[in-house]
């Protein structure tokens, strides 16, 4: 089976996010004074061939822990969708 | 016998020749180790120098840790061989799990390029065995991600086990507990953000890095 995977890697609370902070400061200058908690993170998309969705998730989780995210400063969420051949 | 220092070169490393020059100016032998090699040859000490290994893609140091040479560096460290990561090299060593914690972006959101005062906190490490505890050294820093962070338990362990090697006198980047450099438990693996090789001759504005590099050469020679 083939699965489309979307991984969102975000900062752990307390870890500095210069891009988010800069954008948060810029928005009020454009009149959007009611915006807070801006954070800019990474999205990784990939396609994986695996026997099942569970197998795909297990492998993606392992890849996240080994390289795609750094647990000291980041956390991640994973979405998996089966790719249906057209 | 002359101490042999291997300097790891990844695509994007840019401080290897500075380290080589500094080591050789102090009487050591220095050779470059390409990241694709699976060996550190017969060197006595390894330096992972500064730069932007693999373009700092994904995270600083994240891709470099999977280069073939890093298995050999890890094996060298495991048997007590001296390993020093400078700047980007520090980031590589934390990603490789040879040192705890991580380097996050500087507070103030700025790249910092300056010569700063460092206090020698521990003289137990391969980089400070010739230095005096409490000595203040002027060494350049040059980084965007130099803000050391780790969990409370790790910090307590670093303090209790005398593993904080150097601290900033005036914190330039928000680093936890003013940490500029740490070591592993045995003291043979050290990572630091400042560049001792750029303070290795009075002509460079400071020769305060010499005592650090001489410590490394002494540790390397002891291993010969």
- How are the strands of the largest sheet of chain A arranged? 2-1-3
Shape of chain A: elongated
Numbering strands along the chain, what is their spatial order in the largest sheet of chain B? 2-1-3-4-11-10-9-6-7
Q: Using the coordinates shown, work out and report the CATH topology of chain A.
A: Mth169, Chain: A
Portion of residues in helices of chain B? 10-25%
Briefly note the structural class of the backbone of chain A. alpha+beta
DSSP strand count of chain B: 11
Question: What would you note in describing this structure?
Answer:
The complex is a heterodimer of chains A (86) and B (224). Helices cover 33% and strands 31% of the residues of chain A. Chain A is α+β, with helices and mostly antiparallel strands. Chain A has a single domain (2-82), classed as Mth169, Chain: A, CATH 3.30.1280.10. The model of chain A has no long low-confidence stretch (mean pLDDT 94). Chain B has helices spanning 16-25, 68-78, 88-95, 152-160, 210-223; strands at 4-9, 29-34, 45-48, 83-86, 102-104, 112-120, 136-143, 147-149, 164-168, 179-183, 189-192. A 9-stranded mixed beta sheet of chain B has the order 2-1-3-4-11-10-9-6-7, with helices on both faces. A two-stranded antiparallel ribbon of chain B has the order 5-8. The longest helix of chain B is centred in the C-terminal third of the chain and has 14 residues, at 210-223. The relative contact order of chain B is 0.19. The chains are: A alpha+beta (86), B alpha/beta (224).
């Amino acid at each position: 089976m083939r699965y489309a995977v979307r991984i969102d890697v975000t900062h752990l609370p307390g870890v500095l996010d210069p891009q988010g902070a800069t954008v948060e400061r810029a928005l009020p200058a454009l009149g959007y004074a009611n915006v807070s908690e801006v954070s800019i993170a990474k999205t990784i998309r990939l396609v994986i061939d695996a026997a099942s969705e569970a197998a795909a998730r297990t492998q993606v989780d392992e890849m996240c822990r080994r390289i795609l995210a750094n647990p000291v400063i980041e956390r991640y969420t994973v979405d998996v969708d089966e790719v249906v051949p057209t | 016998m002359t101490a042999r220092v291997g300097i790891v070169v990844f695509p994007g490393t840019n401080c290897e020749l500075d380290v080589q020059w500094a080591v050789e100016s102090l009487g050591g032998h220095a050779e470059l180790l390409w990241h694709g090699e699976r060996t550190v040859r017969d060197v006595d000490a390894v330096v992972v120098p500064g730069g932007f290994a693999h373009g700092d893609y994904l995270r600083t140091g994240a891709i470099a840790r999977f280069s073939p040479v890093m298995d050999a560096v890890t094996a060298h460290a495991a048997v007590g061989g001296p390993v020093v990561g400078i700047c980007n090299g520090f980031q590589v060593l934390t990603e490789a799990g040879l040192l705890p914690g991580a380097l996050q972006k500087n507070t103030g959101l700025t790249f910092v390029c300056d010569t700063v005062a460092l206090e020698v906190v521990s003289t137990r490490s391969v980089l400070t065995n010739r230095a005096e505890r409490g000595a203040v050294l002027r060494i350049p820093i040059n980084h965007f991600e130099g803000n050391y962070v780790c969990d409370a338990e790790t910090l307590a362990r670093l303090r209790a086990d005398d593993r904080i090697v150097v601290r900033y006198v005036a914190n330039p980047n928000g680093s936890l507990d003013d940490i500029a450099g740490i070591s592993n438990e045995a003291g043979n693996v050290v990572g630091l953000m400042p560049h001792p090789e750029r303070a290795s001759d009075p002509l460079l504005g400071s020769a305060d890095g010499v005592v650090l590099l001489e410590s490394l050469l002494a540790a390397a020679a002891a291993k010969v």
